[in-house]
Amino acid sequence: MKFFFMHLMPYADLDLTYSEKYDSAWVTLPNSYYDPKKGAALYNRYLDELEYADEVGFDGVCVNEHHSNAYGLMPIPGVIAGALARRTKRAKIAVLGRALPLLNNPLTVAEEYAMLDNITGGRLIAGFVRGIGAEYHSWGSNPAISHERFHEAHDLILRSWTETGPFPFEGKHYHFNYVNVWPRVYQQPHPPIWIPSQGSRETIEWASDASRRYTYLQTFSPVAALKKYMEMYKEQAERNGYTATPQQLGWSVPTYVAETDEQAYREAKPHIETMVNKFLRMRPEMLLPPGYSSVESMKGMLLAKKAVASTSGGKTIDELIKSGIFLCGSAATVRDQILHYQKEIGFGTFISLMQFGTLPHELTLKSTRTFAQHVIPALRDVGEPAAETAAA
């Protein structure tokens, strides 16, 4: 199994009384709540945490893209990835991901990723997403055409990496006389591509196509939803004529480890509850605007989102642990939880959100170190093909 350290970079200094006046930390929360001096300190603190994950033995670090919110301060994840490119030495850098439908020129992502791939000597993992519904409100983009823009942008980027330029590209949404990306990507034919999702059937069917076989990541979901969508991916792969490997299936989940179960519960409780009840607070129409998904996919994502957070708040750590949305406990407890779910579901990539909400720096580092020292080594060979295990 491969282990990645995910960071959202929340604005941890948020005045939590905001919810007395505003119903969401997304899109409509005035940016007067952001103090640049505090934000500057947070950016540098969070970069330290990502670099520390590389030092203690995580296989990779992950950054992502969100706009106009207090939940994640990475509207341009390439900036953070660029800062990490020279400061990390071993870990993969996964950008999970760029929201392709929001872009007027997807070749900027092709260029950005190619630069990162060269600087790191081939440590880049390229993530592509449609972006959650809130991003379409922030950018004034039409969610009803997000699927077709995503697919067309993806095809353009892949061709720019794998075909010799210059060549013309004429699509419905993007038109170029000269596609000729400099620099070329370091990894040939292109960096590995990962597709995060909250459970869109359309995304699963597309990612599992035999011509792609992209790694699919399930994010912020109860274990029941995780199992459902992982099975959906595997079944779709069989229909496409191949068997999905554990490495094509990834689980992203907030995780906290301490000396004992009781201590982990006590230390994590205020911060995970703040995350789901304050930072993730969002109206359903912001999350899933009309036209963003099919009715079937929308029902599934709404159920998953409802289990994580509600518009009125009030989710407890006990509910989150019970549903598997949050892993919390001693190293032995968390290790056993991951092993149990892996045997039941079959994922081979585990992405831990080690900092969440208002969790302070010292506790983040302690949990990260404990996880790296006492969880990762015991699960390293789980979910690996026999040949790889023997070679290791």
UniProtKB/TrEMBL annotation:
Q: Name one Pfam family in it.
A: Bac_luciferase
- The gene name reads ssuD_1
Membrane-spanning intervals of the chain: none
Task: Please report the stretch or stretches of sequence annotated as the Luciferase-like domain.
Answer: 43-343
Which SUPFAM superfamilies does the annotation name? Bacterial luciferase-like (SSF51679)
If you read the UniProt record, what top EC class would you report for this enzyme, in one word?
oxidoreductase
Species per Swiss-Prot/TrEMBL record? Paraburkholderia hiiakae
- The molecule here is called Alkanesulfonate monooxygenase
**UniProt keyword Oxidoreductase, yes or no:** yes
